[in-house]
Amino acid sequence: MKTIAVVGYFGWGNFGDQLFLDTVRRRREELWPGSSEILALTTRDLGRHATTGPLGALVRAAHSLRILRRADVLAYCGGSVFTDVSGVDALRRRLRPDRVQALGVSVGPFADEQARQDVKQYLGEFERIVVRDDSWTLLQEDLPLLPEPVDGPPAGIEQGGDLAALSPLITRAADDERSGLVVCPSAAADADVDLLAEQVLQARRAMRLRGLPAPVRLLALNGHPRNGDEQLVRALAAALRDQGVECTTSSFLEIGLERTAAMLGSASLVLSQRLHGAIVAYLSGGRFLMLDHHAKCRAFVEDISGDAAVCVPVHAPDLSEALEAALCPERAPLREPEEYIRHAERVYLGQMAHA
Q1: DSSP state of 144
Q2: What is the DSSP letter of 174?
Q3: Quick one: how many helices (H) and strands (E) in the chain?
Q4: Domain end position, chosen among 114, 133, 159
Q5: How many domains does the chain have?
Q6: Which of 232, 254, 288, 343, CA to CA, is 20 to 30 A from 148?
Q7: Are residues 289 and 326 in contact, defined by beta-carbon separation less than 8 angstroms?
Q8: Within this chain, do residues 185 and 330 fall inside the same structural domain, yes or no?
Q9: Residue 109: is the preceding peptide bond cis (ω within 30°)?
């Protein structure tokens, strides 16, 4: 029976990455038929793994050594994990088992040409690569995108969508069960708090004009003590209350994966600077407006809609057109959530020969 070592940005308190880990654990037998166990971060590892500096690097190196010595397959699962091959990834490459896979990853952006070449060379050693978006084009056009799964290890790259599409925690809510505006700020977006408060007010007004109840809920999707969103959520709550708007605040680390997914999936509108705030809203059949600060945000929106009407720059002062697109009941994504999920299941789960 095969043992799978799963690696990614796990343990950093980020909702999207912990959702990836939860998903592959729950669907291990479908992703890797015949496998006996997954080796990944334990609960004890989580706090230490996110430590920065030399101590953090040492913890991650020790963790990699611990799981790779027992692994038959090394699987990179989810996230923007291939921007270079340095540090712990260089160690993983040297110690890797014969079989290496990448599932639901993004490629790049690269700091320089050397980083791009290093990633391309490393990926050439993989037996299977499934990207979540069209970031594969950053490598080179001589790595073909496979339109459908094939038997046996693929010769190129497949595009399967986000791994969250396989999560059993995400369910579709009925329209009459939806309520409220959920806002997911991101410290990584480097946004002005006062501008973000104004954007929230614009979204609240647009919802009220359509007769939608608009209680405001602020949700920190990254709970890392230094790089997370909790401090930003508190600052935004204060700015909104100064404007006379009451709101509630929550953190993914406090309420857990299931309640976080349920909050996002039951909102009338999700206004998000975090990619997986928008992705979970979409997969739940809900409406979202993405405040874009990273190529992966726009790549997702363009993948499902064919345009970027519901994706605006994080510093945009006027959201009126985007809110009209997001809230218009006649407007639907070109790719319905059910189609997106079926495609992900075909690509990720349909190749039994990769077990």
Answers
A1: P
A2: P
A3: 13, 13
A4: 159
A5: 2
A6: 288
A7: yes
A8: yes
A9: yes
Tell me if 306 is assigned to some domain.
Answer: yes
Rounded distance, CA 130 to CA 167, Å? 17
Question: Could you give the C-alpha distances from 111 to 22, 125, 138, in angstroms and in order?
Answer: 30, 22, 12
DSSP string across 281-340: HHHTT--EEEEE-SHHHHHHHHHHHSS-TTEEETT-S--HHHHHHHH-TT---SS-HHHH
Whether residues 131 and 232 fall in one domain: no
User: pLDDT of the chain along its 355 residues, tens only?
Assistant: 599 999 988 888 899 999 999 999 999 999 999 999 999 875 555 555 556 667 777 777 888 888 889 999 999 999 888 899 998 889 899 999 999 999 999 888 888 889 988 998 999 999 999 999 877 666 654 444 444 443 433 457 888 999 999 999 999 888 888 999 999 999 999 989 999 999 999 999 999 999 999 999 999 999 988 888 999 999 999 999 999 999 999 999 999 999 999 999 999 999 999 999 999 999 999 999 999 998 889 889 988 987 778 999 999 999 999 999 999 988 777 789 999 999 999 999 985 434 4
C-alpha pair distances (Å), 336 with each of 118, 291, 307, 332: 36, 21, 14, 8
Contacts of 262 (CB under 8 A, 6+ apart): none
